[in-house]
Specification:
Spore Coat Polysaccharide Biosynthesis Protein SpsA, Chain A; 265 residues; alpha/beta; 8-stranded mixed sheet
């Protein structure tokens, strides 16, 4: 993992940030933390850890935090960026499996799809995620799984794309669309298990994702993208023809071999 970095956008993450960063350093020597205007001492919590720390003086949103981290990774000459949230929801131990998928599908985006113990996900959030998957698939031209996951791998051909539109959580949706439309990159999903507050106990901060507010923003943005590309019905039919690609050598979930799926790009 010498040529990739773990990128952690962080906003008021004092509860878990040191644990998250330490776990990331255990699997990757390059960790970039972007403190997006925190006022709870987030940056102080990781003092002494060997990370690249970028601080925004004021809150600029998750999209801006990711852009700052991507720019830093580009300056470092890295070939890939792994992203994870700073709240402890994701497990850095999943990254080696995600990199295996990246090697099997060169040039594709990889996401940690919350498929394991999916029934434990809050129902309203699961419905929201499914709706987001449906709309973003339409804009990308192929079906996807768990487009709202912040645990991803971006190859250099994608994280260096210029002028990717969208702010906040909209940016992550647009990254998938831009990857598909501008870098000819599809998405391959690796099944992961996510930790939820109501199951784990202990201290977790409340999610920054406001389900209705942010989903409306994402949906409005995606609809605009679909209309801009034109041929709306044709694009919808085309997207439905391309099944989600899941990389899971364990066989627990349906796996599409790289040799057969790569021709679908």
């Amino acid at each position: 993992m010498q040529d990739v970095a773990v990128l952690i956008p962080a906003l008021n993450e004092k509860l878990r940030i040191r644990e998250v960063v330490s776990d990331a350093l255990a699997v990757c020597p390059h960790v970039i933390v972007v403190d997006d205007g925190s006022d709870d001492g987030t940056s102080d919590c990781i003092a002494g850890l060997p990370v690249t720390l970028i601080r925004h003086p004021q809150r600029r949103g998750k999209g801006a935090a990711l852009r700052s981290g991507f720019a830093q990774a580009e300056r470092m000459g890295l070939q890939g960026v792994l992203t994870m949230d700073g709240d402890g929801q994701h497990k850095a131990s999943d990254f080696p499996r995600m990199l295996d998928a990246a090697n099997a599908y060169p040039g594709w985006v990889v996401n940690g799809a919350r498929l394991r113990k999916r029934a434990s996900q809050p129902t309203i959030r699961r419905i929201g995620n499914d709706f987001g998957d449906w709309g973003i698939a339409w804009a990308c031209g192929f079906r996807l799984v768990d487009t709202q996951s912040g645990q991803r791998f971006y190859p250099r051909s994608v994280f260096t794309l210029a002028d990717v539109a969208g702010e906040g959580f909209v940016f992550e949706a647009q990254m998938l669309i831009s990857a598909a439309r501008r870098a000819n990159a599809r998405l391959v999903s690796v099944p992961v298990e996510t930790r939820y507050l109501h199951l784990e106990g202990g201290e977790f901060r409340a999610s920054h994702f406001r389900l209705v507010h942010d989903l409306v923003k994402i949906t409005t943005h995606v609809i605009a993208q679909v209309l801009a590309y034109g041929h709306v019905l044709r694009e919808y039919r085309n997207a439905r023809r391309h099944a989600p690609v899941i990389h899971d050598p364990s066989g627990e979930f349906v796996t599409v071999p790289a040799s057969s799926s790569a021709t679908d790009v």
